[in-house]
């Protein structure tokens, strides 16, 4: 379909949109219905911020979502909800005079040489509201078919057959983009936060048990081969683990999740060197200890310290946002409660937190809400808000959350207070 | 589903459309209901060098102003293309069998101004005093009084 919306040319004071826009003082122009006036439901009006305009004109935006979801528009870094703003006014849409797309069957343009012709009566327009990406779904998609140890030990010859069988619940980047309502950057950041890894073209979460096995293997071998945990040679580790039956991709993934790459030294001849992150490794083992349920503090500390590598030291502060401490009489208990398991939207997050515990002290609550960001509100404002809103009832916090998320909508309503305006979600 | 938002006009050369907006609605006389195409609605007149306009519809005159939109509107055209699905070697067969409908949005224009008429219509006693060639169809539309909330 090659249609070329031709350039607007206002020849000799002609009609069309350009005639109206350039109408000279003390002159007039008839306005009539276009030969192909009609509902034209395929024509949509989208209100766009000037700063967003170049992104759209350079084809850098997409609309994302599934049929049953409310549509969002994504630039490379931001997600916007698309709302329909209804308007009781009559909005006459007038195309440019030279617009080849809208001629009647005979190719006639009627009296357009002197009139402005109304093609459609618009019932409102769509507007964009910046929102937090809707990433909640991503984790459940990736958990449909986590990467387990069996896949790693598959013979390369049988791999293809194995992949065919195991293809259910596997997602490529394109599949995720089509299913998750987030911009590319936001989606990438969340994949990283979920410790997902791209294996054979599919994004996967590696099964917890398998992660535990491979990490333990790295640590065992570090004792065996006397590796320094703060400067691990990538090649050496991947080779050693490969001979133990672990794929290079998975071993590298362990380094990515539990370590950080050091700037390569010139002496190392371009070899990659990794340093294991003490905190991340320790948190991993703490979670392992608490897997069975809550424990008394002393016993937990004892088991935890035993589990972690000899050259690392555990500190309870590391477990902020990962475990909850409860005092029952004289005893102190701990249990696993990870911020990563909580919903990503503020309202749902607070609801989940207060379901877990009715009263929170600010210092306990903070690790569980500090990652929340509401678009359009500065980080400082959000921190202030978090400070004043703690330890009250769920409903109060929820209402604060909601009210600071929507002032934009209210101001819209004021603008239109003389005519009837309705805002609704749009679906694709 | 991922819908590409296309734009073939590039930077700065998007065709500009216009909006004339009235607070109320135009009612077409019943005898013209079925052949509304090409029918004249009224006469738009720029009365002064300022952005003041009148819109004369039948025996009513509305006055309004042209204003720049704070945020421009883009006109998007929704296009649906049915793709003859060619099964990808790697693609599973079940997916490839059903014809795929691809939706595309294309930017076909931009609106930066609107002429808004939000006053109550002023009745004209005699025929409209507008210096303009007489139209064959004559006044065929009326303006209903704007809704008062």
Automatic annotation (TrEMBL), chain A:
Keywords: DNA replication. It holds the Pfam family Dcc1. One of its GO terms (biological process) is DNA replication. The keyword Nucleotide-binding does not apply. Residues 1-21 are annotated as: Disordered. It comes from the Eukaryota. One of its GO terms (cellular component) is chromosome, centromeric region. PANTHER family: SISTER CHROMATID COHESION PROTEIN DCC1, SISTER CHROMATID COHESION PROTEIN DCC1-RELATED. Belongs to the DCC1 family. This is Sister chromatid cohesion protein DCC1.
Automatic annotation (TrEMBL), chain B:
Coiled coil: none annotated. InterPro entries: Ctf8. GO terms for biological process: mitotic sister chromatid cohesion. GO terms for cellular component: Ctf18 RFC-like complex. PANTHER family: CHROMOSOME TRANSMISSION FIDELITY PROTEIN 8. This is Chromosome transmission fidelity protein 8. It comes from Papaver atlanticum. The lineage of its organism: Eukaryota, Viridiplantae, Streptophyta, Embryophyta, Tracheophyta.
């Amino acid at each position: 379909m090659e249609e070329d919306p031709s350039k607007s040319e206002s020849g000799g004071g002609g009609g069309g949109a350009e005639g109206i826009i350039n109408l000279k003082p003390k002159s007039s122009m008839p306005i009539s219905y276009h030969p192909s006036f009609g509902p034209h439901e395929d024509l949509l009006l989208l209100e766009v911020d000037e700063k967003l305009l170049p992104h759209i004109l350079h084809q850098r935006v997409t609309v994302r979502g599934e049929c049953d979801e409310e549509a969002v528009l994504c630039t490379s870094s931001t997600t916007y909800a698309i709302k329909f703003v209804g308007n009781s006014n009559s909005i006459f849409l007038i195309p440019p005079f030279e617009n080849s797309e809208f001629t009647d069957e005979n190719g006639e343009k009627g009296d357009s040489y002197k009139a402005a012709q109304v093609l459609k009566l618009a019932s409102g327009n769509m507007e964009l509201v910046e929102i937090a990406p809707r990433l909640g779904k991503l984790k459940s998609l990736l958990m449909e078919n986590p990467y387990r140890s069996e896949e790693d030990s598959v013979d390369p010859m049988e791999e293809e057959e194995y992949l065919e069988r195991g293809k259910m619940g596997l997602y490529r980047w394109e599949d995720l983009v089509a299913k998750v309502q987030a911009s590319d950057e936001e989606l990438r950041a969340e994949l990283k936060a979920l410790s997902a890894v791209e294996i054979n073209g599919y994004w996967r979460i590696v099964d917890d048990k398998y992660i535990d096995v491979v990490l333990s293997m790295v640590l065992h071998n570090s004792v065996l081969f006397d590796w320094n945990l703060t400067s691990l040679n990538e090649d050496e580790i991947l080779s050693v683990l490969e001979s133990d039956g672990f794929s290079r991709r998975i071993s590298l993934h362990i380094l990515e999740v539990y370590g950080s790459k050091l700037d390569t030294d010139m002496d190392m001849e371009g070899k990659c060197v990794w340093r294991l992150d003490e905190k991340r490794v320790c948190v991993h083992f703490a979670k392992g200890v608490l897997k069975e349920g809550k424990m008394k503090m002393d016993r937990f500390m004892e088991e935890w310290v035993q589990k972690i590598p000899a050259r690392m030291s555990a500190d309870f502060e590391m477990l902020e946002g990962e475990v909850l401490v409860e005092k029952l009489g004289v005893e102190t208990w701990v249990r696993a409660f990870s911020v990563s398991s909580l919903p990503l939207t503020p309202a749902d997050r607070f609801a989940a937190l207060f379901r877990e515990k009715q009263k929170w002290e600010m210092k306990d609550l903070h690790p569980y809400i500090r990652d929340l960001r509401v678009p359009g509100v500065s980080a400082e404002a959000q921190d202030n808000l978090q400070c004043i809103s703690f330890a009250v009832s769920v409903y109060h916090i929820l209402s604060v959350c909601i009210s600071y998320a929507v002032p934009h909508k209210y101001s819209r309503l004021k603008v239109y207070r003389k005519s009837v305006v309705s805002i609704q979600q749009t679906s694709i | 589903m991922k819908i590409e938002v296309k734009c073939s006009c590039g930077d700065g050369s998007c065709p500009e459309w216009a909006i004339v907006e009235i607070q109320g609605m135009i009612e077409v006389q019943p005898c013209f209901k079925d052949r509304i195409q090409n029918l004249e609605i009224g006469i738009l007149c720029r009365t002064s060098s300022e952005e003041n306009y009148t819109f004369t519809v039948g025996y009513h005159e509305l006055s309004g102003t042209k204003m720049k939109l704070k945020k421009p509107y883009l006109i998007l055209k929704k296009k649906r293309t049915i793709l003859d699905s060619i099964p990808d070697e790697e693609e599973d067969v079940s997916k490839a069998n059903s014809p795929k409908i691809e939706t595309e949005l294309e930017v076909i224009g931009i609106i930066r101004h609107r002429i808004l008429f939000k006053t109550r219509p002023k009745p004209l006693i005699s025929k409209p005093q507008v210096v303009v060639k007489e139209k064959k169809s004559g006044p065929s539309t009326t303006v209903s009084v704007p809704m008062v909330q």
